[in-house]
Structures
1.
Amino acid sequence: MPEKKTSTSTNKNQPAHNERKKFWNNDMEAIIGIMIVLLILGTINVFSSSFIIAEADFDTPYFFLKRHVINIVIGLIAFACCFSFDYHVWRKYMPIMLGFTIICLVLVLIIGPSVNGAKRWLPLGVTQFQPAEMAKLVSIMIISAYLAVQVSAKRKIDILTPQMGLIALMFILTEQEPDMGTACIILGVPIFMMIVVGLEPKKLWIMVGSVIAGSIIMILRQPYRIERLKVTFDPWSDAQNMGYQTVQSLSAIGSGELTGMGLGVGVSKYDYLPEAHTDFAFAIFCQENGFLGALFVFLLFAALAIYSARVANKAKDTYGQILSMGIMILVVGQAIANLLMVGGMFPVVGVPLPFISYGGTSLIVTMASIGILVNIGRQGEREIQKKILAGEQPPPPSEFSLDSQVPIPAKR
């Protein structure tokens, strides 16, 4: 009696069960997919939250939508360039990028138009350029290059360096606009990167003390910042003045309930919530999409953080690993800060929600950052595949590993 053929031979060429469940083939495709979904959600939300004010101020409901689409196109070009070019190229041209950014930050203070008492933009015809947004990415590149050299050479990380001096200069120029939120990101992300990579305990405490002292000075420089800080945890104590934005934001979020009022139906954009399409765009999103929509956005940013960390762990060199970590902190950190601000758990500091808030330069810089991140991941993946095809073991993690969360102690 002939034997029955086993199911193994029948299914020999079929993909494994877990492979059939994959939405993407690698971490880079996952990051690109998350970016596209966030861009779609952001575009819908920008139109929904802005068409009322656009109609009132510019006689067309599509004013902000058109500009947002133009910014997406420019952002896609920036993403494609950063995705295509070797990320080490940016290290080579860092002096040019830094010089351009500092010149623009100075020009903003001299010729930039004043909007609500602040000078933050350079007019460029149909659009505007915000140099402080570019300074965020430049500061990460500067500190990544320095940290990579120190870690590779097993040298201690210093606080007072020329690199930190240049970052401090961009911080001061941005604070003069004034733009405390962006200034804190320009300086804060590099400081956080230094702490994660590894600072001696003594230098760590000096850094923490300096940050606390600097924060107090910045708050005292502008009286309105003190008032904002006072109403952060009790906005109803001054609901018609300093706490107005937070109260209206919380009301918009709460009124969305589980599934939301529906796209375009949210009422808070009818002159109730200031900056409804920019810094507080997420409040309108929650009102129209409810708790489930908000949860979906949370999960997207959480997934972006996870896949970014995976890219960092597979980077082919220390510079790529630290740079990708910095980009992850920049994008996801801004998202966390905005969500806390909109939710009334953080002072109103003017930090946009990446991809969701309206803001041309911010969107373009964020998409360029994702392009660099994907390039790092692609090169790391190629390096691993080369080793596997050559019959070698994949390269071990770099000296600074996000897997362990503990850097190798620096030695002099």
Note: Residues 1-19, 402-412 have pLDDT under 50 and may be disordered.
2.
Amino acid sequence: MLERAWGRLAGVADLLLREIAHLVTFDADDRELQGVDLRISGGRIAEIGRLHPKADEEVLDASGMLVLPGMVNAHQHLYQVGLRCIAELERVTLEPWLSGLGRLCMQWWREGHFTPESVAALARAGMVESLLCGVTTIADQHYFFPGGVTAPYIEATIEAATEVGIRLHAGRGTMTMGLSEGGMAPDETCQTIDEVVRHSLELISEYHDPDPLARTRIHLAPCGPHVDRPELYAVFAELAAEHPGVGLHTHLYEQIDTEFCRRRYGMTPWQFIGEAGWHRDATWLAHMVDAPHAEVADYAAAGVGLVHLIAPDLRMGFGLASVREWLEAGCTVGFGTTGSASNDGCNQLGDLRVAALAHRLGSADPDRWLSVRELLAMATRGSARCIGRSALGILEPGAAADLAAWDITSVDRVGVHDPVAGLLMTGLSDRAQLVTVAGEVVVRDGHCVSADEETVAADARAALPPPA
């Protein structure tokens, strides 16, 4: 599998982007450069500066482009691409949303529509959508195993990522504590810890690549303290410590788990995962919407990553996470979309615009509002740090050749004084003009070229059950 993933890189030509209108590096000095050239070679950024074309490289005119590092979506559920805009779940809070989603997925499974093939088709559509908005790496979390059966849903998703050409952190999600045992997951979706560990080790052995430029990595991702046993968190911490590059990821402070941990364990969710050995820099946490202010300094000291998910947080009525406080405390902060069932899209760029506007409600002091550059840094460098990938999310020599470029000369960008702010605040479309992953051009002229968009969309629609 890994040989096939790297094999596609062998045929990738060197690339030179000439006269870039505006380059945002998100390097250690947060450099922004105008009129520079960028050379890609061997899947890495080779040079940035005033460069002369070489005979064996493709040259692209970037004089009308804003270029950023490829974005990293640090929290996603790709199988949920088939669960957008469900009418009866349009205006519900978290618990009825979860139960409604679960019932529908179980129905699909019983009718033979929830299969590895259908999950792959839906994931492929989500990956292409992600590439088109400038996302080059996805951290997925697949936790739904109906009937408790370990079907190869994650394996199928990894194969789809290899075909499409996007980097994937494939999360072995879990639900291990059902209603009959005091948890909040339906019993028919739960698995034993032994089975989860068996499959996790199998995934790590077959697919995990600790290389700094890996296309595929595995991380261990319990769904949450309200549906997973404490013992699982402890076992996963041990497994991650034994396997370099394997990370730890979970939902935390998503409101539903806060009250559960207080009632069942007499502690906060942060204390819960701490007892299992998760207070470490291999950990990143999604949502964190009602985290106690008194704990924020501890998150920074532990080095854990915090992933902001503005669209689902608003969709579920959670409100605004304390992102400014996280940044001021020195936390590692990333950005993601979560699954399409609570977001209705994979458009990370669109969600960044929502965040730029929504967080203005959190303070009357404009200096405390999240700036466009802070948000874009979260979605690139910040998310990459969350998932343990220091070679991603930045543009500098030696870094991965993952980048995204947008046309800033179009009619919808007329009058924009700051092209970086204009990327979020203006535009008829969030489609990138150019996207590369490991130096491979996967989006060119605003269209995916690593996969046929129409075929991907048709296959995904065919994977869904017929309308009721």
Note: Residues 71-386 form a domain with the TIM Barrel fold (CATH 3.20.20.140).
